[in-house]
Amino acid sequence: MAGEEVYEKKLLDRVADAIVDGLAALINLVRPGWADRNKARMDELKLTLYALNRSPIGLLGVALVIAFVIIAVIGPYIAPLGYNDQLVYCVTDFDAVRLAPPGTVVEVAEDSICTQLGIEPGTYKLWLGADEYGRDLLSRILYGARTSFIVVILVMAVGPWIGILLGLFSGYRGGVVDEVIMRVVDVFLAFPGLILAIALSAVLPSRLDPIIINNELLLGTLLRLFALKPEDALPMVRLVVVVIALWIVWWPVYARLVRGMVLSARENTYVEAARALGIPTHSILLGHILPNILGPVLVYLTLDFGAVILVEAGLSFLGLGAVPPIADWGRIIYDGAQYYPNAWWLVFFPGLAILFTVLGFNLLGDALRDIMDPRTRRRIEFKVKGR
């Protein structure tokens, strides 16, 4: 029809369409007919991505987050050296590589002790400098990205969802169940989250060490996830402790947030219709209420990805998270702070990595908040309407 308003699709919009259509096709292989039944949802998802494509802040956030994920996944494989390769053993002049400034070149000879330690002979340029043991800072930052990535994935895959499920059940059932769950939430929220995480990180290691070390399957899986050597299994347990501590700290806020939204959503007509049809409670909660309150929760989840990275780095900086020789951004800053400002690169570059990563998640979360809000969502969408 002449004069009909349509979306002016750009390259990113076509990419978004391809991603959504590909996702629908994959699900359709497992559940035939799913794409036809959920066409409206897929169209809405495409509109959401169109709106995100028109948000400069959102696109910058997406770019930073994607860069972080890519570096975390491939970082250990592209790192010039290992996270604990100490180049001080490679040269006769100890001070030549100890706290070496950015751009220093180190020659590893074939007959050096380093070759016996597994460092290939050749010329290495320390692009970002080296620490007090002559370890390549660039390599440690790349490995540190993997550490932060695995920690944040493990925390966000469990902690918030404990709160979401309890909030759903509490808000829907009400009564005594609601009172008990909310009073437990109040107890947890009475303590500052960081203080509680510090206390748990200090108490839990002695109890978890034997459980993880004696379970070969769990130990091997964690070592592969964190890209660590078997001899560093014991220091890795401290990272697992941080994850468990953050599980305990992270769920109460989500329980209260979701509970408040469920109190409103449970009075809607579609919920009453589902009850009248005899649909089980768990199906109503997960299939009807949760999808309709997921927007604000998704925004909160996105912002918390950055918060988890900050808290984990903070715990490592305080000596309660990652311990040597594991590469962790917070621990690198802690170890390098004693040499600041002479060895400024030991603080500056890992701090920059934390800054850009957290900024990326915050910008993405801010853009999603605007997109999920109907008042601002339509304003963003209508910017791209043409005739």
UniProtKB/TrEMBL annotation:
> Which parts of the sequence belong to the ABC transmembrane type-1 domain?
145-365
Per the annotation, which location comes first and is thus the protein's main one? membrane
Which is one Gene Ontology cellular component term of this protein? plasma membrane
The GO biological-process annotations, alphabetized, read as: transmembrane transport
List, alphabetically, the Pfam families matched. BPD_transp_1, OppC_N
Membrane topology recorded in Swiss-Prot or TrEMBL: Multi-pass membrane protein
Q: Which UniProt keywords are present, listed alphabetically?
A: Cell membrane, Membrane, Transmembrane, Transmembrane helix, Transport
Q: Which residues cross the membrane?
A: 57-79, 149-172, 184-205, 235-253, 297-323, 343-365
Q: Which InterPro entries match?
A: BP-dependent_transpt_permease, MetI-like, MetI-like_sf, OppC_N
Q: Where's it found, cell-wise?
A: Cell membrane
Report the family membership. Answer: Belongs to the binding-protein-dependent transport system permease family.
What name has this protein been given in UniProt? ABC transporter, permease protein
